Task: structure prediction
Amino acid sequence: MSSKTRLRMTPSQRLTRGLRYTAIGPVDVTMGAVGLGLESARSTAAWAGDRYRNGKLAQQLKEDLAAAQQVLSAELAAAQEVVAGLPESLSKKPQPNRRRRRVLWIGLGVAALAGGAAAFTVARQSAQPDPSPRPPSVEVTPKV
Result:
């Protein structure tokens, strides 16, 4: 059982179809040519607009760059003033207590040693097997 059913066209239907495609062919060609012309004109206008905007954008970028350079030079001058006054401000600062710092480092060293010893002890104990709760299957004392 085939689902393809082909109806034969009558001669009048054939003639109508042929004339329709014959008439539509030149219309399609004409519409295609007009469409290509319009698309080309649109593309050219877009390209020209982009060129115009890019020219204005370049001018705006130059102005922005000049403003940024001025701001940067002002910031650089301020930073130079701060660096020039740095030795003076460092000399006014009181010297830190060296003994307190030494005691702090010694305390940190002792704490690190104690932590290492505790970690070593825990690791050593966990490495030893637990004794079995069952009695040994072989005599432990040797016979003489």
User: Anything to note?
Assistant: The mean pLDDT is 81. The first helix runs from residue 11 to 84.
